[in-house]
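dumping this here before i forget
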Amino acid sequence: MAADLAHERLGAARRARGHLDVVNEVAALIPISVEGDRLRLLELVEHHLPTVVIGDQVAGTIRVKNTGTTLVSAWVEADVRNAFTGEPVANIQVQDRTRVASGASRDFVYRWESGVTGGWFSVPARVTYNRDNSTTAQLDIEERVWVIHPYVVALAVSALLFGLLTLFVGRRRWAARNPPQPATPAAAVSISPSTSTTKELQ
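structure:
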C-alpha cells in the first residue's frame, strides 16, 4: 500500500514539473494531398570526364539539379565510341535509380574498364528520368577522352632508352674506329731572290 502511494506521489510530482508519461503508442500513416502541379524537371549542371587517362579504367561524373517541384527518379547510361571511326566500343548502364529531391543536386558516376585498349574515345552520356507515370525525358551530353594504357607508356619509355643507348654506343664505336689524326707540321718554304742575266748587245 505504501509503495502504491509513493508511486502515485512520484507521478504527480513529474506531471507537476511538466513531464508527460507515455501510456501507449499508436503509429499511423496519414496521406496528405497538396494542391498544385507536380513538375518533374532535371537540369544538367556538369559532366566531368578527364581529358587524358593513363590506366585501364575511365570514370565520369554527371551532376544534375532538380528544378521541379517534386521528387525525380533518374538513372544514367553512357556509350563509348572510337572518336576516329565512330565504331562502338562499350555500353555502360548504371541501373541504380537515384531519387533527387526538389532543389537538390546529385552526382551520377559511371565507370568503364578499358583493358588494354587505348586511343581517342567519345563518350555520349544520357540521364533519363520520369516526367510522369507514362513518359520519360532525357539529358544528353558528350565528352572525349584520350586513354593511354600503362603498357604503352612503358613501351614508349623503353624504346626511347633503347634509342639513346644505341646512339651512345654507335658514337663510341665510331670514335674508336676513327681516332683523331695528329697534326702535321707545315713544310718550310725558302724563297731565294731571283737573278737576272743581262746580255749586252754589241
